[in-house]
Design a protein that fits this description.
Number of strands: 0
Strand content: under 5%
Number of helices: 10
Helix content: over 70%
Shape: globular
Largest sheet: none
Structural class: mainly alpha
Length: 257
């Protein structure tokens, strides 16, 4: 045990400082990992450029500029990569390697550890938004100024829903299974989950199903905010419902070791 020069045991740092330190550590671990940066930033930016510039890809924009329709969806996709895919994989391997159990016994505690993870995700998302928005502006994006503020509501709601999903799978499945499932689910939701394109422009049953998925709801909130300057009520309620359900399951089923 570490002691001071006079033999006394040093007191733990204040709770807020412990959580912020953990959040900074979580963010650095993601941003220093080349694979995570590829998934969280590079792929969304490449997807945005490809979908906007590729003339052979036909997209029904409903009269909107292609970049104005696609940029909100790509931002929503970025939220999913940081709050779900990256967080699920990192947490699952921390759990397998005993890191979660070790940190839970420190003054940080389980609550502080989870709070640090959420704040770390938000920090990574701030970096994502800046880089993706900069790329979109270069491509001619002109978002609704009022909607930019409302979009923050969508980012927070989407982060809550997908972080709850990440903790649910990371706390109940083997790390190797989480690695495969997280990447597969991200791909499926990106292609057919209504996140990049509105649900009503997807083929067949996807058009009905996607709007009720957290991915479709997040995409609709972001498009409503950044295209129209509004906060659509139904997608907001869908995200809140998913967050409540997934959060309750994660709280009940999450295993720390």
């Amino acid at each position: 045990m570490t002691t001071t020069t006079d033999g006394a045991t040093p007191a733990a740092a204040p709770a807020a400082r412990r959580v912020l330190a953990q959040a900074a550590f979580e963010a650095r671990m993601i941003l220093r990992n080349g694979e995570q940066v590829l998934v969280a930033v590079v792929i969304p930016v490449l997807a945005l450029v490809g979908l906007v510039r590729a003339p052979f890809i036909e997209i029904e924009t409903g009269g909107d500029a292609r970049i104005d329709l696609l940029a909100p969806g790509v931002l929503a996709l970025a939220v999913m990569t940081a709050s779900f895919t990256s967080q699920a994989i990192a947490t699952a391997f921390d759990r397998r390697n005993g890191v979660l159990r070790l940190l839970a016994t420190t003054p940080l505690g389980r609550g502080g550890l989870l709070a640090g993870k959420v704040l770390g995700v938000l920090a990574v998302e701030a970096v994502q938004v800046v880089l993706i928005a900069a790329a979109a502006l270069v491509l001619g994006w002109r978002p609704d100024p009022v909607g930019a503020v409302l979009a923050l509501v969508g980012l927070v709601l989407g982060t809550a829903a997908f972080t709850a999903l990440a903790l649910l799978v990371a706390g109940t499945l083997r790390a190797e299974a989480v690695l495969a499932l997280a990447n597969l689910l991200l791909l499926v939701l990106a292609l057919g989950g209504g996140v990049i394109l509105p649900a009503d422009r997807l083929p067949g049953p996807f058009a009905t199903l996607a709007a009720w998925l957290p991915s479709g709801a997040l995409g609709d909130v972001m498009r409503g905010a950044l295209l129209d300057g509004t906060l659509p009520l139904l997608p907001v309620l869908v995200l809140v419902g998913w967050t409540a359900g997934l959060g309750a399951l994660a709280a009940r089923l999450f295993r720390w070791h």
